[in-house]
Amino acid sequence: MNIARLGLAAALAVALGGTAKAQIAILQIQVVDGEGAVHAPGARASHFLTVEITDETGKPVEGAAVSFHLPEDGPSGMFGNGLRTDVATTDSRGRAAVRSLTLNRVPGRFSVRIVAAKEQARAGTVSFQYIAEPAGGAAPATATGAARHRARWIAIALLAGGGAVAGIAAGRSGGAAASPVPPAAAPASTPSLSIGAPTVRIGAP
Q1: Any idea what the CATH number is for the domain that residue 103 is in?
Q2: What is residue 16's three-state secondary structure?
Q3: Does residue 204 sit within a domain?
Q4: Distance from CA of residue 46 to its chain's centroid?
């Protein structure tokens, strides 16, 4: 009887030991919702990204930690915790989601780095997101101000150099610029002839 019990205990120890050593070797990440989303400038997203984590056999991995990282500058935003990094844990379906994000107002594409970890296994991927141009395509205020400043100086330059510009334009349209016509000379005065009274002188005979 004692031998039988010892044999059963040894068998259980071997089985439990084998189970304890079995670890997840590979994690796989798939974005199942939110990939390539286009957000309005300054918008607050209530459902941002959802990922699914599976092992090497395609089985969902529960309890994996999934971190999401936003860019430090350019098109980006802030998670609900006020940071550019947030962490979620996968559920029984192997899914984790970020549901609170406020975008900034810089238009363009940005990437979200995603890293999953469970025991000794790690995996990473990138999801691309977009912030749309402002409504109406309005240019930034700084650009508008610079354009107005440049236009004002162009107008001043045109007014100051109007004559020179006109001369250059005439030269380009007709070849060499025509020489200026000298002013007409004043007509010469007509010579006058005057004859005095005749003088008669009679000498002695």
Answers
A1: 2.60.40.10
A2: helix
A3: no
A4: 24
3-state SS string for 95-148: EEEECCEEECCCCEEEEEEEEEEECCEEEEEEEEEEECCCHHHCCCHHHHHHHH
Domain count, the chain: 1
Which tokens in the block code for residue 69? 């990282």
Contact 40, 49 (CB under 8 A): no
Q: Consecutive 10-residue runs of the chain (205 residues): their mean pLDDT? A: 48 49 84 95 91 95 97 96 96 94 96 96 96 72 45 51 46 47 52 50 50
Return the SS3 of 43: coil
Which residues form the domain of 49? 24-136
Q: Helix, strand, or coil here: 14?
A: helix
Asked if the structure places residue 65 within a domain, the reply is yes
Cα–Cα distance measured from residue 183 to residue 71, given in angstroms and rounded to the nearest whole number: 75
Structural domain contains residue 4: no
Distances (CA, A) of 110 to 39, 81, 91, 102, 123: 11, 20, 27, 14, 20
Tell me 180's DSSP state: P
Establish if 93 belongs to a structural domain: yes
CA distance 133 to 159: 38
pTM of the model: 0.58
Residues 6+ apart with CB under 8 A from 115: 66, 67, 69, 122, 123, 124
Are the C-beta atoms of 67 and 87 separated by less than 8 Å? yes
